[in-house]
Write a structure and sequence with these properties.
Blueprint lengths: L2 H9 L3 H7 L1 H12 L8 H18 L8 H19 L5 H21 L5 H8 L3 H10 L8 H5 L3 H8 L5 H19 L3 H12 L4 H8 L3 H18 L1 H12 L2 H9 L1
Subcellular location: Cytoplasm
Family: Belongs to the sigma-70 factor family. FliA subfamily.
Main location: cytoplasm
Length: 260
């Protein structure tokens, strides 16, 4: 019996069976995430972190909340894996800086033109050639500065607030508004970028498989995915600023402000 299974069996009757039944979900999520991570990341580390997330999900799941256990566990598992990845940030600071520069360029260009920023326009704004700009996109693929996983699956906080019946109504409305704004931002992506996001996150295809569907190289899919993420960051910047400001406030103060 594994250490996780032993711990689960001690905690509550039937917990071990629930964890064992959903262990394949951990592996599936881990291999899905590995599709865009560098070779320095070991899938075994993700699986180990994911099993801890699954165990926590099994211990805390409440069917009265309405979500299926698989949905709830998937969020916890991804969250645990992302927490593990955040502990080992392999991305150079220069890559983070360039990613922020691209997002800002997209924001400025789209605010000025009222339409999707084009590759050539962003490259010109940044003083880069088109090939240099595409290389920046390639470099930022593994940059975790912004991703749908971190927005949708960072949900530990969201889940905790949903589970807390005393969560302030204003915060619940903010989370709902954020989700709606994100959905609108995704729907407003250029067609190819939206398709890449859909195939990757909904159909769970890897980058090579998406390239085969689109008839482009895997590196081009990486560029499209990276650009989609940065475009979403640019369009969601106001919401991200609100979330970061709220996260920086002490929890007690957040509740006091919400009640005011």
């Amino acid at each position: 019996m594994s250490g996780v299974a032993l711990y689960a069996s001690v905690q509550a009757p039937g917990l071990e069976a629930l964890v064992g039944q959903h262990a394949p979900l951990v592996k599936r999520i881990a291999h899905h995430l590995m599709g865009r991570l560098p070779s320095s990341v070991q899938v075994e580390d993700l699986i180990q972190a994911g099993m801890v997330g699954l165990l926590e999900a099994a211990r805390q799941y409440d069917h009265k909340q309405g979500a299926s256990f698989e949905t709830y566990a998937g969020i916890r598992i991804r969250g645990a894996m992302l927490d593990e990845l955040r502990r080992y940030d392999w991305t150079p600071r220069s890559v983070h800086r360039k990613a922020r520069d691209v997002a800002e360029a997209i924001r400025v260009i789209e605010a000025r033109t009222g339409r999707d920023a084009r590759d050539a326009e962003v490259a010109e704004y940044l003083g880069l050639t088109l090939s240099e700009y595409h290389q920046v996109l390639q470099d930022t693929v593994s940059c975790r500065m912004f991703s749908l996983d971190e927005l949708l699956e960072s949900g530990d906080t969201v889940l905790d607030e949903c589970e807390d019946s005393a969560a302030p109504p204003v915060e619940a409305l903010t989370q709902s508004g954020f989700a709606e704004a994100l959905a609108d931002a995704i729907a407003g992506l250029p067609e190819r970028e939206r398709l890449v996001i859909s195939l990757y996150y909904e159909e769970e295809l890897n980058l090579r498989e998406i390239g085969e569907v689109l008839g482009v190289s895997e590196s081009r899919v990486c560029q499209l995915q990276s650009q989609a993420m940065l475009r979403l960051r640019a369009r969601m910047q106001d919401w991200l600023d609100i979330e970061q400001s709220a996260a920086a406030r002490p929890k007690g103060r957040r509740k006091a402000v919400s009640k005011a």
